[in-house]
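Help! Submission page says 'invalid entity' but I think these are all valid:
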Amino acid sequence: MIVAGCDIGSLTAKAVIMKGDEMVAAQVMRAKSHPEESAREVMGKALEQAGLIMDEISFCVGTGYGRASIPFAKMVESEIACHGKGAQWQMPSVRMVIDIGGQDAKAIRLDDQANVIRYVYNDKCASGTGRFLEVMADALNIELGQMGTVSLSSQNPISISNQCVIFAETEIVSLINEGKNIADIVSGLHHALAHRVAALAKGIELQEDIVMTGGVAKNEGMFTALEKALGRKIKNIDRDPQINGALGAAIFAAEKLRN
Amino acid sequence: MIVAGCDVGSLTAKAVIMNGSILGHAVIKAKSKPEESAADVMNLALEKAGLKMDDISFCVGTGYGRSKIPFVNLAVSEIACHGKGAQWIMPSVRTVIDIGGQDCKAMRMDKDGNVLKFSTNDKCAAGTGRFLEVMAKLLGVSLDELGIISENAKDPLSLSSTCTVWVQAEVIHHLNSQKPIADIAAAINRAMAIRVGILANQVSAEKDICMSGGVAKNRGVVSHLEKVLGVKIKKLKYDPQIVGALGAAVIAGEKAKGGNVS
């Protein structure tokens, strides 16, 4: 039985293909202007990776911001449910998922059956989402993917006083002009974002084990900053944290077929 | 007795010189250092009044950079100064809505200019002058033009986000969809008015209502705010940007009369 999950986010599109209990393909790409286009392309890449054709997929579940526009999805599931499902499949002890996406952040509490008990999310204010780091990376003229590495050499993270992305951007520009250490600025930005996301997660009571998903979880500086802000350890998942939602969708697809 | 008020904001610096009536006033773009802005704007106002610094008996400082103005005898909050200044111009004023470059305040006063309630936002760029600045840049127009072109809107669009960052994305989308600039500008001014309206409602705004700060010159924002609040906003006969500095000068006059001159 071959199933698939497709997660169309605001900035990236992800697809996962599963054969029985095994993940045989996972792809991530930058989103195109049309969600259908992103969906077709990322699924095409995953199929190619797995050496399969679309007709061989028995069931596909769609999720994410653009889930309603995935032409080949037979069912859609919320991102919340998919992130919970995917994380617990990867690590059964997981009871809390913190997902930081390009335009939102969520904290999800799960029971031992991957049912969502409570969740909270922010998509109203760009501060506290991946966009915060994106804007700052631009202001610093650093690749978004490099921010984690850059922050590692920081000795004295600078505390960022503004919360608003717009005001913080101005603050960063002044810090650069003052000749402040870039690593200290970047580390300060990680702490600022971590603080916002931790406040969100604390709103639904922290539960262990905690994992972090979404593109921002690839940033090692963010990983340690969030641990500090939460005052708890975060478990490391081996797989790419960006594919977790698509993986959860694929598991929903498999369950749907089984029932 | 000649007194002065100096208001050093985030984007502009203002100075007013008074002797019962306004003798001179000036508005300049802020320099990188507040003390520099203060000295420059005060010199300009003195020049306009045909006076020199020694002629000033008492000077009150206000605004974001008020603690850094070297020549002031007293620093007073912007809230108090805006209320005072607006009521000096128009005694019937009970509510002042001040939109600055990076904040927004609403204050309600009694007939003697005492502040009864105030509310301020300096945490979020939405609803501050910065919001309009970002949007004007995106549309490729000046801040002044943003107000003017929105009056030609035939079919104003709507914006679903509040956050400046997300609105930016929405505006880019509208631009890419070839929507008329006037309709986008109207949507921006309306979004601004809705945010400011929330603050005004928090202080239970009462008539007469007036606006101060640079954004008060934007007709688009003012007319949308009138719709949001359901009342006319009174237009002050002086430049709305000098209201804070004027209030500071009025307070300086009261202090000087009280004999508290240091």
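Support: the input was valid. A stray whitespace character was the problem, and the output above is from the cleaned input. Residues 93-235 of chain B form a domain with the Nucleotidyltransferase; domain 5 fold (CATH 3.30.420.40).
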